[in-house]
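Notebook entry, cofactor series.
This is the third protein in the set we're modelling with a bound small molecule. For this one the ligand is adenosine-5'-triphosphate. I'm keeping the input format identical across the series so the outputs can be compared line by line later. Sequence and SMILES below, as received.
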Amino acid sequence: MKAIELNNIRKTFGARLALDVETLAIDGGRMVAVIGPSGAGKSTLMRHISGLVTSDRGTRGSIRVHDELIQSNGRLSRSIRRLRAEIGVVFQQFNLVGRLTLLQNVLIGTLSRTPFYRRWSRSFTHAEKCEAMRALDFVGMSEFAAQRASTLSGGQQQRGAVARAIVQRARVVLADEPIASLDPESARVVMQRLRDMNQSDGVTVLVSVHQIDYASRYCDDVVAMRDGRILDVCPADRLDLDKLKAIYGERFEAMQAEYLAPAPVRADEAASADELKHLDIEARLND
Ligand SMILES: Nc1ncnc2c1ncn2[C@@H]1O[C@H](COP(=O)(O)OP(=O)(O)OP(=O)(O)O)[C@@H](O)[C@H]1O
Ligand SMILES: [Mg+2]
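Returned structure with ligand:
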């Protein structure tokens, strides 16, 4: 079964064609980078998959996540609320709720699997709070748990959003430029934690990055976009200079200088077995 499937998805804003995808199929358990120059349609693609944007009507296009229809022919599925619970999002613009504390934001991740009556009473169980704290610990943010999200830096918010996706136990995570404007160390933590979720929990991750270096270091495959179209889908280790030039065109050299700060390497990159045990990954896989 494919984790994500798009067929015939077109989206126009006014006269501009923002997305034009004949087919895209992503296998479960892969970590896939979406690359392409600014305006290529990366964010538009992710917003379609999460059901935040609907495609043009009349094209009979469809998007499925784990075989369930998210949208078809420009209309959202009736089950969209339930389906969204399976999709974790780490989006730059609307990441966390500013007036809530970081911990409360992470706890929001549990709501999708909370019984209806408790959702309204807004009480979280001790176990949920512990899980949220462990997730914050995992992304190196536990000391900020009580701080209002609006007062956190961009990078701290991104990490909080990753913690929320962990607590949500999402099967698919869409991360739109989760490391844009982060310092190399924060970028490394965010990418590595996404990779940990992917490898230890089998979560399918779709992540857009401008830094090609991070795409090839952390991801299995790369989806290359330009002008709303998918130019290529290939294993991350087969990205070569010619391909990159085809994707980025004349702007490639300039872009390289702009974004290609090398990803720092660390010996302890993968989460330790202890850290993963901490997250109850086994229990999660069994439930
Ligand atoms: N709500 C909107 N209204 C009008 N045009 C839009 C809207 N959203 C996206 N677009 C246009 O669609 C195209 C694709 O935009 P998108 O944000 O998906 O690009 P991107 O690949 O994410 O770029 P970046 O790397 O700069 O984030 C752009 O030309 C953009 O101007
Ligand atoms: Mg974007």
